[in-house]
Amino acid sequence: MHMKELSIPDKVLSLECLLRRLPETHPRYPEVQADYARFLKGYRGEKAVKYYLDFLSDKKYCLFHSLRLPSGKYHFQVDYLIITSRYALILECKNFFGTLFFDETFNQMIRTANEKEEGFQDPISQAKWHQQQLKNWLHSHHISLPIDYFVVISNPSTIVKTTPQNRQALKKVIHGHSLLNKIAEMDQMYRTEILDSRGMRKINKQLMRSHVEEKFDALGKYSLKTNQILTGVQCPECGQIPMIRHRGKWFCSSCGVKDKNAHASAVQDYFHLVNETITNKQFRDFVHLESEDTAKRLLNAINLPTIGTNKGRKYLKPRG
Ligand SMILES: [Zn+2]
To answer: Are residues 170 and 281 in the same domain?
Structure first.
């Protein structure tokens, strides 16, 4: 059963907006671009792993994508969590190309690609740390379920290496295509039924209830102010910002396209970059519109949830 479906992470969507609205000449542009590429790659790796997970029986396995649970003052987030009646399984997905070497002595992962060596945090230590935190979470909810983990390398052409002594890496680092076999091995290993169907429902409900969505503040992350990004409606055809309001439509002076609804994407961009609510005045400033009545009509037509009335009305980012 898919309890929490795979979806494009908020940080990928926010950075995609930021790249469209930050002038390419801005000194932080390359950094935003690099972060965007990295987050997108991570998401694509998770999506590739999902292909295999879709083969699992809905009845036996409950699947959570990007579950983020509290752990003391902090949170921890696992790429995939699988709950069964006999065990829980954490999957850390890694989407790397090149050759990965797992170094047990220094708890490090070294990636060699294009004749360049780079060190990364060891995903095995990361998975074990998540295992420990999940154990604490289960304990605090009076559930005792064994927890296991795998580091899943999503790119089939990535070469994985380690020393023959590094049993952990040999056992725990796997390629996506062997995931289903490894889960079958887990099923053989954990044979004691711990949760009945009621217990399963309960833990799934509690996990969903404890999940805290990560707030990603794209402007804050790069110390950007709203006046440093390009405001205005963006042309859906050529990407030009801003479009001009003319005879009830948005007009692009660059490619000549006319569009009735282009402001709706600008509101989405505002939600991703500036704030999760927007007032009539903020909307007018952001899309370069003068008429309060027009702004009201356009905003109402997008059908967003609202709070407050008249001048105090705020339009809200839709949930989920
Ligand atoms: Zn255009």
So the answer is: no
Burial of 189 (0-12, 13-18, 19+ CB in 10 A): exposed
C-alpha 17, offset from chain centre: 15
Q: How many angstroms does the Cα of residue 246 sit away from the middle of ligand 1?
A: 14
Task: Record the pTM.
Answer: 0.88
11 and 102, same structural domain? yes
Model confidence at 116, in pLDDT bands (50, 70, 90)? very high
Longest alpha-carbon distance in the chain = 73
Query: What is the CA(259)–ligand 1 centre distance, in A?
Result: 10
Is 88 inside a domain boundary? Answer: yes
- List of E strands, the chain: 2-4, 62-71, 74-83, 88-94, 99-103, 108-113, 116-121, 147-153, 159-162, 173-175, 244-246, 249-251, 258-259, 277-279, 306-307, 314-316
Distance 261 CA to ligand 1 centre (A): 14
CA 228 to ligand 1 centroid distance, Å: 22
Distance in Å, CA 317 to ligand 1 centroid: 26
pLDDT tens across 131-174, in order? Answer: 999 999 999 999 999 999 999 999 999 999 999 888 888 899 99
Beta bridge partners of 77: 68
